[in-house]
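Extended Data, panel c. Modelled sequence:
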Amino acid sequence: MVNPGKPSGACELCRKRRIKCDEAKPTCSYCLKRQLPCWFPKSQFEVAWRDQNQVASNAVQRLLNARDKPGPDAERSSKEMTRPDTFNLPRVLPQDHELYALTFLFNSYLLPSTLSNHQAGFLGCVYPVWTQAASSSPLRPAVNAVAQALLEAWSFLNPNAPHSLARSHYAQSIVAVRRQLQNAKDIDDDLLLATLLLDMYDGIRSFCGARHHEGPHVRGSAALIENRRKLPVNSKTSQGTLSGVRSRIVGDALRTGEHVSPNVLTWTTSIQSSPRTPELDLEAINIEVANLQVSALGLKADSAGVATLGSKLLAKANDLDERLVAWATTLPEEWIPHCIMDSETLPRSIRDAGLYQDYCTVHKSIWTADALNIHGCSRIKIKLLTLACLEYVTQSAADVTRTNARATLQDLADTVCASVPFYLGDRVGVRRIDDRSVEYPRPGNSATPDEHYVAAAAYGGMFLMERLVELLKLRPYLRAGQQQWILGQMGRIKNIYLAKQA
């Protein structure tokens, strides 16, 4: 504040005591008579611009004290202190958490999936159906549930917590699914996509909570397709949705050892018009691999026909293994991974984070890398089943077959381990999903593609965790120390995503 009146030439003591000063210098008559120190301002500027904050503060304090006293005076003082508001402005502008979460989902998870040629999944179908979905569609709260869960996970919160904002969206979607099933005449794409996203939400919670993913919504999706009255091939979106349901069913069956319904095989004829991809061809083989696993449970039964069953299963396993090997030979050239054999060409941070046997592989995208690892895990299941069948079958070349199967298992495990740096880079702890300072292995001096930074961070950990879990089933056939290395990389994934340790 500044002094609004005419500057006074009084000394400081007379001014504070509010008495008239004769302004005699160097000592005024009042201070001289009372033997007090007398001080005058050095200039008129110091007088005009002297600080008045203490005076104002004392006045405000007097009003506050008067307001706190009961009675009419206090009420009058309170009214004097209150400024009428012409409009109300909050201290912090409210944030649209739902819009922020949706932006995060589409930019970090859905758009990277459309940048690649990954046509076997359903994520690329979500946006066009979501934009056309009605406000009462179960797809809208399902998308919100996944978006909020992922945002909470990357914000170092726990989507399993009771206060999670995603839980309410999840419950709304369940209610909307039931309502649409009661009122709808047919099963539309938005309903199927909603069930797949609800399964994705459960998968996120399972990953962050270190528990098994049961997948009830996938089985619900299969039942919806069985009851669909029109062929789900009317558009590219319908074809992608159908492929997504089938992919999830096959993946769960391979993981849990469940039987795949023969009706799922007939879905293949419904999508013949869609472009054939290596993923779709691999799934067709994996359906038979999953059903072969279920048939192999009969080997544990103590019966006279176990030897005959073992021979049949062994022949089927050899046939499927040959088809899986043939699948790998028909891949497009860009799918073939580039192997970096000289570890010295890799950044030191990648070598320290996790490099097995001084080499690693670089792939076209995170999607092709996972498809190749799924192929490797399918062959692992076949070779384990082959070893189990050889225990019940008398075969002249059984020892040679057993030795070859064990060597193949080791090679397949090494191949999955070699892909770990491509998935995780040099991440060892919590970092931003769009962190461009993460180092990834690249052939030569080529730069890491922009989409790989986000796609690898978004999907890499969840994809890789499933494959490493499969490798732990090879404990008797792994090299010395390889099991500990795999467990260490699983712990590394938990640290990166702040997931609970199992």
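The first helix runs from residue 12 to 17. This feature is highlighted in the accompanying rendering.
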